[in-house]
Amino acid sequence: MVVALLEVKDLTVRFGDDEAVRGVSFSLDSGVRTGLIGESGCGKSLTALAILGLAPTTATVTGSVRFEGEELIGRPERELCRLRGNRLTVVFQEPMSALNPLMKVGRQIAEVLEVHDKAGRGEARRRAIDLIEMVRLPDPSRTAHKYPHQLSGGQRQRIVLAMALAGDPALLIADEPTTALDVTVQADILLLLDDLVRDLDTSLLLISHDLSLVASLCEELLVMYGGTIVERGRVSEVFARPLHPYTAGLHSASSLEHSDGTDDLRTIEGSVPPIGQFPGGCVFRNRCEYADEVCLGVPPLRVPPGEPHEVACHHPVSHD
Amino acid sequence: MTDRLLARRGNLTRWMGLALVGFVVVMAAVSFVWQPYGIEAIDPTNTNTGPSVDHWLGTDPLGRDIFTQILVGSRTTLFVGVVAVGIASLIGVPVGMLAGSSGRWVNETVMRAMDIVFAFPAVLLAIILAAGFGGSTLTAMIAIGIATVPVFARITRAATLQVMTSDYVLVARSYGRRGVPLMVRYVLPNIASVIIVQASVAFAIAILAEAALSYLGLGTQPPTPTWGRSLQEAQTYLFINPLLPVWPGVAIALSVLGFNLLGDGLRDALDPTLRER
Amino acid sequence: MRPYLRWGALSVTLYLLRRLGIFLLSLVVASILAFVLLSLLPGDQAQTMLGVNADPEALAQLREELGTNRPILTQYTDWIGGVIRGDFGLSRSDASIGSEIVRRLQVTLPLVISGMTLATIIAVPLGTLAAMYNRRLPGTVLSVASQVGIAIPAFWMGIMLVTWIAVRWGLLPAGNFPTAGWAETASAVRSLILPVTVLGLAQGAVLMRYVRSAVLEVLNADFVRTARAKGMTLGQAMRRHGLRNAAIPVVTVLGLQLATLLIGAVVIEQVFSLPGLGRLLLDGVGNRDIPQVQGIVLVITGLVLFINFVVDVLYRAIDPRLRASA
Fold this sequence. Notes:
Helix content of chain B: over 70%
Strand content of chain B: under 5%
Order of helices and strands of chain C: HHHHHHHHHHHHH
Helix content of chain C: over 70%
Radius of gyration of chain C: 25 Å
Structural class of chain C: mainly alpha
Mean pLDDT of chain C: 84
Largest interface: B-C, 47 and 56 residues
Strand content of chain C: under 5%
Oligomer: heterotrimer
CATH class of the largest domain in chain C: Mainly Alpha
Shape of chain C: globular
Number of strands of chain C: 0
Distance between the termini of chain C: 22 Å
Structural class of chain B: mainly alpha
Largest sheet of chain C: none
Order of helices and strands of chain B: HHHHHHHHHH
CATH topology of the largest domain in chain C: MetI-like fold
Distance between the termini of chain B: 20 Å
CATH architecture of the largest domain in chain C: Orthogonal Bundle
CATH superfamily of the largest domain in chain C: MetI-like
């Protein structure tokens, strides 16, 4: 039996009595690029932080996260540290604040190698310059001597990416890596990210609220709403036949191909409730046009008859 | 249980601050209509007694009632605080707004001038004034007030700089609002909470400064009682009555604590963005 | 050499020169203020010296001798000219003010510097702990302790220590700095223990609050999370990335506090009867000895401005973002 690269089971994150992530389960295979999509506040970033063991100290994390066969939840921090930045790395959303303003960026990259004893000081510095070149920044040896404030947002995100790839990771988690950037820069960074994970044969978990972005980069798709996974499948299949009313709503709200110019752009009614105020049963019940008394029960994630992928809904959208 | 208590600490802080400040204010108010004894009344048969039914906090070596001294002393504390913070904010806030809304040169010049004023702390200014006029309540208030101007100016400037770049001010300016009307109608209401918080904290510092000046004999003169001078007198009687310095000190500490807590509580209540994580 | 490095050095030099210029200019303005304020105050020096019933001729002669009948500008330039050469003039008792100030600084400076050191030793670890245990019991206890410490007037704490430790228990002297000064090292040190404790505790409580909020800020900073994502433990991340960032606001506060301490020393010297600069200043006020007060006020404001200058420069040295925009 082949062990999945990452296997998440019943992952739950609580703040006091409020569940922000409620029993999320999924698995990722080696070399596969997976998108995790959802509106802000649906718990997708928290899921990533919980996998990395970096959830806020005020949060309680339960469930199981197995990475390369090893359980991560409940592990002492020292052991988690051996994985983080090494086999398991992350790129956060805000390149403006993710870098230490008082340290030259070359040092910050080299540090990754030193922390994991992969190189001595001099060797790490040389490798850092190679990494800066790899993320296609001009004049690498000079860039290494710059401070974060001397770089643009896009350049800083390239540095963060270089740090994430320095340890030759098996899995790279990218949490909204381009959201904070200008549109033109976004495209460059995505192209770079795409090329690099393909070249290095790294698995990617791309977290985003942008469906089209995930579609262009990923093969697998996880749709998250209200702290749970509501739909899961191959990107092409989910796009062709979105089964959850929420996914269908996201899909038509983000794609223009369905509008003929006369229709109003379709949107999803209402907005994401704050943590702890989701309805019981199906979390989407209060915003869903198909909701009825059946939806008072929690829908399991399963493959409906005649469909190719899983959905957690009592009334999957019919495409016939 | 503890978690919930700790989470509500902001509320608790505010109420404790309010209660302590309220206590001092009530003490001062009461002293106008009722005092157990006259401030200069001497009871030669009862010198240096401990707390009793007749003398709640006891008497000093001259036979004066300590509670009366503390009660009436709260007036000076509050009076000096109000006037000093008033002077500081009336000068400091307009200066800070001017600096925060003007070009680089005005900004720089004003703030450098504030640095120079800052080099004359309250006690030093009070000493300068006392050298000419002799110490008095007035010189203490002016000294503390002027020394506190830079604090208000700096904080107002920082808040103004921030508000000036906000959308609503930009919109107002695009409609041609400028100068004093822009400042009063758009900027001031939006920085008011910062200034109120600062006023509470500055009040606490003013109480400490007033006490120090009275202690040094550079503030309010006898026979008006002040907490600071009570401490100075207590120090001369240390060998006779070591408990004497306790009461004025407790009074000062509780009032300072009250205004500081009130300031913290107000910060949480008025400006959620400043709330501590 | 790479050219951008030389540009960097040039901009640093330019910044230092500009900041030094501002410092000197502020010093001149402050000296004018100190002199003019004190000279224009009511109360004629000659009159004070000779009494209200003095003979008008004697008064005029004394004014001539003191030079107080000349225009204020001339008086100022004479005074400041002397000060620059190290001559602060003569006090009422015909002693050299300059050498008296130097003698008194030998008490005040050690007092202030040890007080600041003690405050830092107290505040940095406790403030950091308070931040690490924020919203938990140890953090709350430490925060409450610091609030109470801030509210207690330093001179009251001094009086209480004198009452109990010095007078009642006789453990340490209540001041009594030896007349021989530092020549009697042991008793000089002993006489400063209580005053330094008072200054250190009082300032430590204030400083702790700033350390706590600076560390809290950094604990929640994204770059610390990044460092942990690289594989550092929280402790490593704080040591390598957090502390330097937290140091920036703390250095500023340290500078401001040093200025506060200088003034706090005036009061504390009174409590412990220490022959420092503050006592000299208060004696000067008591005797209406205007030249002596002017000299000391100038020294104190000068020190405050100098501290401001040093803090500004340090601030730039720590923070590369400011180095570039010089």
